[in-house]
């Protein structure tokens, strides 16, 4: 993210009304490698390919804010790998994680990983350290500490079905698991911030929070998300949850979140009423059906419909209702920028 883009983001957070409305997208391994002509495994395994792909993207779309920008990640394997899960890699498909806990009783044997040495985390940091000079020579800086959220990680360790069932059948075990993962995330976010003095934002991605009702959200999600967002005093606290997001939206202020990317199933007006006036909404174009499968005219119509649902266009970043999926064309991204 350039200095100008960062200042634009801070102006949006302050409530300035910008014309044009800034556009930003969460971009990572599902879209970048294919768009740039690389395989997914090349993107993950070759630091030079990773750097080349990201530089190509920011040069091709200089007016688009990439969130978080130069994201060093290994798909859903990144944080779970520190807990010792098996990661399965494919040449041109997304990596997968095999759960490591066979039973709720296994939670009690877990130890907090050391984010300086365990799993793929040292590779994430080393990639950014080694590429930092090239990133900054291109006019960009590393702005965000990034991690999957505590419920997301816990569900990969235990299994998604088992995690959600455990909320009802084994709540004390789930509490224990989430507390451990949260403490690990506080360490991991802190290490990223300590490594890069340009970081002034936290981005957490946690879709599992969208599967909880009000009472379960307050017990199992809110305190842990708040703990991570409170880990360091940064300017931008950005949450991505593109599952059902209305319950989450009602608690953003309590969690300290000031930017929210959510499901395209909720129009901007509905989300504004749920989230309140102080949160920057990041959305809300359907990522697959419009950005990936639609035409530029479809994108322009979707942008117009999204904006029409809001009376006040302050604290808004035009974006996808989720991350950017495979197959999104340059023409559709240009249409998003044109509005």
Structural class: alpha/beta
Contiguous runs where pLDDT drops below 50 for at least 5 residues: none
| Rg result | 19 Å
Quote the beta fraction: 5-15%
Overall pLDDT metric: 97
CATH class (first level) name = Alpha Beta
Count of helix runs: 15
Q: What CATH architecture would you give?
A: Alpha-Beta Barrel
Question: Termini separation (Å)?
Answer: 21 Å
Keywords:
339 residues; alpha/beta; TIM Barrel; 6-stranded parallel beta sheet
Question: What do you see in this structure?
Answer:
- This protein is globular.
- The two termini are 21 Å apart.
- It has a single domain (3-338), classed as TIM Barrel, CATH 3.20.20.210.
- The chain is 47% helix and 13% strand.
- It has 339 residues and is of the alpha/beta class.
- The strands form three sheets. The protein has a six-stranded parallel beta sheet with strand order 5-6-7-8-9-10. Strands 1-2 form a two-stranded parallel ribbon. Strands 3-4 form a two-stranded antiparallel sheet.
- 48% of the residues are buried.
In short:
It contains 15 helices and ten strands.
Topology:
Blueprint: H1 3-14, E1 24-26, H2 32-36, H3 40-45, H4 47-60, E2 65-67, E3 86-88, E4 96-98, H5 121-137, E5 144-148, H6 150-158, H7 160-169, H8 171-195, E6 201-205, H9 214-229, E7 236-241, H10 246-249, H11 252-255, E8 259-262, H12 268-275, E9 280-285, H13 287-292, H14 296-308, E10 316-320, H15 330-338
Parallel strand pairs: 1-2, 5-6, 6-7, 7-8, 8-9, 9-10
Antiparallel strand pairs: 3-4
Helix pairs in contact: 6-7, 6-8, 7-8, 8-9, 14-15
């Amino acid at each position: 993210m350039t200095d100008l883009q960062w200042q634009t983001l801070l102006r949006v957070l302050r409530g300035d009304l910008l014309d044009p409305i800034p556009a930003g997208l969460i971009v990572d391994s599902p879209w970048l490698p294919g768009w740039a002509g690389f395989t997914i495994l090349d993107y993950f395994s070759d630091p030079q390919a990773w750097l080349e792909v990201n530089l190509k993207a920011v040069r091709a779309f200089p007016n688009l804010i990439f969130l978080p920008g130069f994201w060093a990640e290994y798909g859903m394997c990144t944080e779970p790998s520190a807990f010792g899960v098996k990661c399965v890699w494919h040449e041109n498909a997304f990596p997968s994680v095999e759960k490591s806990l066979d039973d709720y009783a296994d939670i009690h044997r877990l130890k907090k990983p050391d984010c300086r040495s365990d799993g793929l985390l040292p590779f994430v940091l080393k990639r950014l350290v080694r590429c930092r000079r090239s990133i900054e020579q291109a006019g960009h800086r590393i702005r965000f500490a990034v991690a999957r959220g505590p419920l997301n990680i816990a569900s990969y360790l235990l299994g998604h079905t088992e995690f959600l069932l455990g909320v009802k059948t084994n709540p004390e075990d789930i509490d224990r698991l989430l507390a451990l993962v949260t403490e690990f995330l506080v360490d991991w976010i802190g290490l990223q911030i300590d490594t890069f003095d340009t970081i002034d934002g936290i981005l957490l991605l946690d879709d599992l929070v969208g599967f909880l009702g009000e009472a379960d959200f307050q017990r199992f999600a809110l305190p842990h998300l708040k703990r991570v967002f409170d880990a360091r005093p940064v300017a931008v606290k950005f949450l991505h949850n593109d599952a059902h997001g209305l319950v989450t939206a009602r608690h953003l202020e309590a969690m300290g979140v000031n930017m929210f990317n959510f499901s395209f199933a909720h129009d901007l007006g509905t989300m504004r009423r749920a989230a309140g006036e102080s949160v920057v909404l990041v959305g809300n174009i359907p990522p697959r059906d419009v950005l990936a499968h639609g035409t530029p005219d479809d994108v322009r119509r979707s942008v117009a419909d999204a904006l029409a649902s809001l009376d006040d266009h302050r604290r808004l970043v035009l974006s996808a209702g989720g991350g950017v999926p495979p197959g999104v064309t340059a023409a559709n991204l240009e249409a998003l920028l044109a509005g």
